[in-house]
Design goal:
This protein has about 400 residues and is α+β, with helices and mostly antiparallel strands. The chain contains nine helices and 13 strands. About 35% of the residues lie in helices and about 20% in strands. It has a six-stranded mixed β-sheet with strand order 5-4-6-3-1-13, covered by helices on one side. It binds adenosine-5'-diphosphate and magnesium ion.
C-alpha cells in the first residue's frame, strides 16, 4: 500500500504495512495532521487507552533531495535564516530550536538503520503551535514521510511513529508517549483511533458526530503549555509510584477506580483515580460509538463523559488552568453537550462537543467570557475526524 491510497473502512489496518518502497522520488510534498484526543489523558505513559482523532489541520513538508548529505530546513512559522545541518554530525543536543524536530527525525531514522538522503525541506503549517494539538508530531510525521519516500524506503507507519517518538524523546528531550505520532500517521477519516498503549494494538472506531447533528469545537485558550516544565514529569513520577504501591507494572493494568482507595497518600490516590477512571471512560466512549447507529442520545452521553473527564483532570490530576475551566463551564451553559481540556495540561486547548445549531452561541459565549476577564481572545477550530499523513504533491 502506498501512503496516499485510501484505506478501506472494512479492512482492519494494522499499521504494519509499508508506506512506500517504490522508487526513490527526487521531490514532493507530504502533509501530516495534528490531532485532538477525544478521551484518555495522561493514560498513554500509564500503558492505558487513548482515543485521538486526526484534525483537518496539519503541517506540510515540501522536500527535495540534496546530494551533499545536508539538511537545509526552513519553516514559514520560524522566520529567519534556513538551518543547515550535516546528516553525519547529528546527535542528541547537536541541534536546538525548532530545527531539532526535523533533524531529530533524520537522526532517529538513521538510528533505526534507515539511510536517508540530504534534503531541502520547507515546512508550512496551519496548526497553532503549543496549543495541545500536536504540531510537534505533525512536523515530525511530515518529515518522516518525506525523508523515507525521498529515499524510496519501505517503512511501516507504526515503525515511523516509533521513530518520530524517539526523535521527540531523545533528540528533543520531551518525554511524551506514542499517542501523537500514532494519531498523525495512523488515523482514518471518519474514525477515532483506539490505541492500547501497552500492547500497541490499534483499532479504527467509526466517529462521525456530524451524522448525529453534533460538531466538535476546539478552543485554543491561548495559554501555551510547555511539556518540558516540571509538572508533566512530576505527574509521571507520581503515577509510577502509585502503580508501585498498588503492585502493578503501571496504572493501565487496573480497571476498577476503587483500587485507588488502597493508596494511603491522598495525592497519589487522586492521580491514580484519574488514570483508572479515564481509561474506563475511553472504553465507555468506544462502546457508545460502536452502538448500532450512534444518534443524538449517544452523543449526549459522550458529552457527559467529556465533562466528567474535565472534572477528573481538574480535581484529581490537577492539570487544568483557569482559561480551560472557564471555557468548559461557559460552553456547557451555552448549550454544549460536554467539554474538557485536552493535552498535557497547564495550557493548550479545550475540546467541546456541541449540537450543530448551538455552535454560534457557544463560540459567542466563550469569546465574551474571555473579554470580560481581559484575556487574549480564544481561537476556534472546527474539528472533523480526518485522515492521516500522506503525500500531497
Ligand atoms: P504541540 O505539539 O502541542 O503543538 P509542542 O510543545 O509539543 O506543542 O511542540 C511545539 C514546538 O514544535 C514548537 O515550539 C516548535 O519548536 C515546533 N514546531 C511545531 N510546528 C512547527 C512549524 N510549523 N515550524 C517550526 N516549528 C514547529
Ligand atoms: Mg507536541
Amino acid at each position: 500500500m502506498s501512503g496516499d491510497e485510501p484505506v478501506s473502512k472494512d479492512e482492519p489496518v494494522s499499521g504494519d504495512e509499508p508506506v512506500s518502497g517504490d522508487e526513490p522520488v527526487s521531490a514532493g510534498a507530504w502533509r501530516a495532521p495534528g490531532r485532538a484526543n477525544l478521551m484518555g489523558e495522561h493514560t498513554d505513559y500509564n500503558e492505558g487507552l487513548v482515543l485521538p482523532f486526526a484534525l483537518q489541520y496539519g503541517t506540510t513538508a515540501i522536500a527535495a533531495r540534496r546530494d551533499d548529505g545536508k539538511l537545509v530546513l526552513r519553516s514559514g512559522q520560524a522566520p529567519g535564516e534556513p538551518v543547515t545541518v550535516a546528516l553525519d554530525s547529528l546527535a542528541p543536543g547537536s541541534v536546538t530550536g525548532w530545527a531539532a524536530y526535523p533533524a531529530g527525525v533524520a537522526w532517529a531514522l538513521g538510528e533505526a538503520g534507515h539511510e536517508v538522503p540530504g534534503a531541502a525541506i520547507d515546512i508550512d503549517s496551519d496548526l497553532p503551535e503549543g496549543a495541545g494539538l500536536s504540531s510537534s508530531a505533525a512536523l515530525e510525521s511530515s518529515v518522516a514521510l518525506a525523508l523515507t519516500e525521498l529515499a524510496g524506503l519501505a517503512v511501516a507507519r507504526r515503525e515511523l511513529a516509533t521513530i518520530a517518538r524517539r526523535a521527540e524523546n531523545e533528540f528533543i528531550g520531551v518525554p511524551t508517549g506514542i499517542m501523537d505520532q500514532s494519531a498523525s500517521l495512523l488515523c482514518e477519516a471518519g474514525h477515532a483511533l483506539l490505541l492500547d498503549c501497552r500492547t500497541l494494538e490499534i483499532t479504527q472506531v467509526p466517529f462521525d458526530p456530524a451524522a448525529a447533528g453534533a460538531a466538535l469545537l476546539v478552543v485554543n485558550t491561548r495559554a501555551k503549555h510547555a511539556l518540558t516544565g516540571g509538572e508533566y514529569g512530576r505527574r509521571r513520577a507520581e503515577c509510577e509510584e502509585a502503580a508501585r504501591q498498588l503492585g502493578v507494572p503501571s496504572l493501565g493494568y487496573l480497571t476498577n477506580a476503587g483500587d485507588a482507595d488502597r493508596l494511603a497518600d491522598p495525592v497519589l490516590r487522586r492521580r491514580a483515580r484519574h488514570v483508572i477512571s479515564d481509561d474506563a471512560r475511553v472504553r465507555a466512549v468506544v462502546n457508545l460509538l460502536r452502538s448500532a447507529s450512534p444518534g443524538p442520545a449517544v452523543y449526549r452521553e459522550i458529552g457527559a463523559l467529556l465533562s466528567r473527564a474535565h472534572l477528573s483532570l481538574r480535581d484529581d490530576f490537577e492539570i487544568s488552568w483557569p482559561e480551560a475551566d472557564v471555557t468548559v463551564e461557559t460552553a456547557e451553559s451555552a448549550g454544549a453537550l460536554g467539554a474538557r481540556m485536552i493535552g498535557g495540561g497547564f495550557g493548550g486547548s479545550v475540546l467541546a462537543l456541541v449540537p450543530a445549531e448551538a455552535l454560534p452561541a457557544v463560540r459567542a459565549a466563550i469569546t465574551e467570557a474571555f473579554r470580560l476577564r481581559s484575556w487574549t481572545a480564544p481561537g476556534f477550530l472546527d474539528a472533523i475526524p480526518s485522515a492521516s499523513a500522506a503525500r500531497v504533491a
